[in-house]
Amino acid sequence: MRFSHQASDSSSQKSDNGLVQFRSKYMTADEIESILRMQHAATHSNDPYIDDYYHQARLAKKSAESRLKHHFYPSHLKDLPTRGRNNTEQHSHLPVDALGRIAFSSIRRPRPLLEVDSPSSGSNDGSTEQNVTSPQDGGIQLRRKRQMLLEGLAASLQLVDPLGKSGHAVGLAPNDDLVFLRLVSLPKGRKLLFRYIQLLFPGGELARIVCMAIFRHLRFLFGGLPSDKGAAETTIDLAKTVSTCVNGMDLRALSACLVAVVCSSEQPPLRPLGSPAGDGASIILKSVLERATELLTDPHVAGKCSMPNRALWQASFDEFFSLLTKYCLSKYETIIQSIFSQTQPGTEIISSESTRAISREMPVELLRASLPHTDEHQRKLLLDFAQRSMPITGFNTRGSSGQVTSESVRG
């Protein structure tokens, strides 16, 4: 048996400088090199931010840890149309050329992952390195683009501003927060939310709108810790992030957040800090009260709080304080009823049991943080409640107002 060996139409060999030179039967080496350059220019933009995104991101993270400056941003930005909430376009359309053909993406030249404009074409020497310099406008364009992207994400969540653009209250429909609730029902959605809040300016209107949506659904978000460890950590991180954002708000935004809690259809989970059932809502509300105390007592900041904003805060706090005290009274009645149903009256066991139950169930930190904002009547109410809730042996339940069961109070 004989095998016929035919010469190949093309071959390659290394030159003296180590570069591969292609040879062909029908094309010269220069022609092949020219085609390779055209193919390389079509598939490489000579922008490290696009061509090697993950490597550049790793270098930026490494330089941040070592306190070295490594700029990481695209050289050019491409403006994309933002889709508003009331967009009437329901269906997407495929691009069709003049001949009626549908243009699909090529597997040899896929669509770029990042929608950025490539820099003006120049001489391409095959080098992938690029000198990255600071923007000439000081980053104004990048900050403006960043704000547009943040607003676009808020629009995609279909968040409603109850205060309205004119400052007048706007009613909320039952399904206004449907997209938001579907997102935060997933652990990844909550992680996206707290990372999104980290990018917001704490004193901005967008941060207020997002936080008001969170305050409207404190029970949905922080009603209980998930059994999954990762999901539980995400919920805790979300509470800490919202608390940090609250610490940068002004008095008007704080008032709006308390109004969102009071007007919500959900009873917020008012628990003591460190509760095993979850204390995210209490951490956030405590931050609101302490931030308001700081704004109203700091002589350098108090002068900037206008009288209308002070009046709005006091009205918001009065409603929240009424909600808080009603919850505490109901919770206290529930604790006492539960203890007396299990223990004989007049025994010393009642004192220790009530002490442990009150410290375990009562949001004492919220009551303490509310003190600087209370008036004379509210302080007297707190004093009476404190004296009443002191564990006394042989406590008489005939003075209690009505029968309250543990199922009627959500904690």
UniProtKB/TrEMBL annotation:
InterPro entries attached to this UniProt entry: Pat1-like
Highest taxon of source: Eukaryota
Record region (Disordered): 65-94, 113-139
Sequence ranges of Polar residues compositional bias: 118-136
Ranges of Basic and acidic residues composition bias in the record: 76-94
UniProt GO BP: deadenylation-dependent decapping of nuclear-transcribed mRNA
Chain segments annotated as coiled-coil in the UniProt record: none
PANTHER family: PROTEIN PAT1 HOMOLOG 2, TOPOISOMERASE II-ASSOCIATED PROTEIN PAT1
Protein name, as recorded: Protein PAT1-like
Origin organism lineage: Eukaryota, Viridiplantae, Streptophyta, Embryophyta, Tracheophyta
